[in-house]
Amino acid sequence: MNKNVAFIVIGSLVAIGLIGSVVLHVLRPDTVAAFMPNLITLLGLIVTAAGTIYSLGKLDQKVDSVHKNTNGTLSALREENDRLTRENVELARRVPAGE
Fold it and tell me: Is this structure's pTM higher than 0.70?
């Protein structure tokens, strides 16, 4: 989901909750005591969801950056490691065992 869309949805839910609170204050003041803790819990969940969505967006950017930098594969790195390993084995054969 697009990060902007998620924030718009979350903002809309917060606005609906606050409007509901105002309406309850006007129409049924006796029910506000039960509604407010639920609203605060809902807003806490929404803020947590927003933080999670933001963090996932940042993580996706990092993954894309790594993907671009490695061109999607690590074959060049593996080939270089194999070459260096072969070179080390060959050098180890040249060195006498006692030295």
Answer: no
Residue 11 lies in a domain: yes
Number of compact structural domains in the chain: 1
The Cα-based distances of 60 to 1, 4, 50 in angstroms read: 12, 15, 15
On whether residue 81 sits in a domain, the answer given is no
Residues 6+ apart with CB under 8 A from 53: 1, 3, 6, 7, 10
SS3 23: helix
Tens digit of pLDDT for each residue in 35-92? 778 778 877 887 888 788 888 888 888 887 777 776 656 777 788 899 999 999 998 8
Residues constituting the chain: 99
- Residue 19 included in any domain: yes
Looking up tokens 């869309």 gives 5
Nearest to 54 by CA among 13, 11, 16, 2: 2
Backbone angles phi, psi at 95, to 5 degrees: -80, 130
